[in-house]
Design goal:
Layout (H helix, E strand, L loop, with lengths): L3 H52 L4 H15 L3 E5 L7 H8 L4 E5 L4 E7 L5 E7 L4 H15 L7 H9 L6 E5 L7 H8 L4 E5 L8 E8 L4 E9 L6 H41 L14 H49 L4 H32 L8 E4 H12 L7 E4 L12 E4 L1 H18 L3 E9 L2 E8 L33 H11 L3 E6 L5 E8 L13
Parallel strand pairs: 10-12
Antiparallel strand pairs: 1-4, 2-3, 3-4, 5-8, 6-7, 7-8, 9-11, 12-13, 13-15, 14-15
Length: 545
Amino acid sequence: MNSIFLRIYAGMLLAVLLVGAFSYGLVQLINGYRSDVYRESMAHGTFYLMAKGLQRQGSAAEREARRELLSRLLGAEILLQPEDDVVLTYRERLDLEQGFVVMRLNQAESYADIFYQLPGEPVYIQTRMDKVSEQQARATALLLLDELAQYPLSEWDTEFERISKRFGYPLARVPMETLRLDGEQRQRLARREVVLVLDEGASRARSSVMVYAPIGNTGEVLVLGPLALFDWMPLEMSVLVGVLGLSAMGLATYFLVRPLQSRLRKLDAAVRQLGSGDLDARADVSGQDAIGQLGLTFNGMTEHIRRLIESQREMTRAVSHELRTPVARLRFGLEMLADCDAADERRSKLDELDGDIEQLDELIDEILTFARLEEGTPTIDLKPVDMHDLFDQIRRQIDPIKGDLTLRDVTDWTQFSEAARQAEGEERYLHRILQNLVTNALRYARQEITLRYSVQQGMAVMEVGDDGPGIPENERERIFKPFARLDKSRHRASGGYGLGLSIVQRIVEWHGGRIEVGRSDQGGALFRVSWPREQRAGHVLGEQR
């Protein structure tokens, strides 16, 4: 995935999915705990009153009668189980010993098993409920009134306060006339009935249930509630989940953007380093995306600039040295010409001066050719070149100047079909390669120069060998440097300016090939040039470098 947009988009999409899954799981986990606490707190007061009523019974028969009464009141079977007959977990048993209600939910069948221990006894109250109904709310009110009836009226306030602490919702005793009830509800209270009222509240943000039960002839009403319905997404939890979700998204965004920012900083530091003149600046930025490609392009540009500047410096020094010799000869020739009186002698001196000027012109032409190849990316027109015709053309051009030397083409052209003789490239540059190599061999060969063409593993190969002194192995890299010359066997007297092989190397590199130096079968130097026989159309010089 090389697009920065796609990487960030995919990363953000994945982060949203993960944060969403995390938030959903967190909500479910918190609500699971909250719902357990809610149900247990709502049931605790009722089961506490049931246990108190059961423990007041003196005999087993009375306790059994009380159990049956509770079953009818609650609309669910109430069981009294000995401790050893109930299988509980360690955590459940510990909660029961501490006076809490334990609920076991069965989500598949939508019911809950509820356990409560009789205080101080190894006996558990057990029941199974599949829903919460008005009957259970009325039963709770009746149980509370029954509990208060066990005490003198003077102790009701104290007992009421003590009992209230066992409930997970408010309890109150208020005068009937202070209640905001309609006429039908007041009539029901007058008939000693328990009344349930759904209270949606002023803002209707959270519904609740109010339970009203008349307290004998006291004129007071027992008020249970509000019994708030379970709120799955209270404001506090919404804020918590929102903050956690935003934090997770911020963290995910940070980890997505931080690598990009770090790489851009490295690239910026490399640009600043290059801007200060340090040509060794490199951007340590890897990757296949746009930033990685930009880093590679920057490094390639920096290397190219460094190579061009070094080449320019080297060529400037070499050119100044090479120009000094013909200019000095011209100056000396002009001084000699001034002292010549005879016409024949003056003509001879003028011919020598013309030769020096021609040599200077050739040197300038070589320098300009080398400079053009060093400029960067000239476009070449890749076309199939018939190598047999190219070899014949070189042989015809060299024949007038080869003297006593023999130039032989040792290629067995009969083994090549017409298509196999074709190699893609710029014809004039391939001609320049072969011409420079043959001209270079002419200077050092003793008797013979050989040419050979072959195709090896999809590469076109040209070889030029001679029977001269050869090139030492430790000097074979240096000869491709501009204006480079070797020892006495290859010096200025042999001709040339040390640019021919540099030009050849540049042309070969721009064709995506390579040039190698070895020893020929005749014992002299062997230059071997290879490049891709088939290349992409519209190839730009230097693109494969």
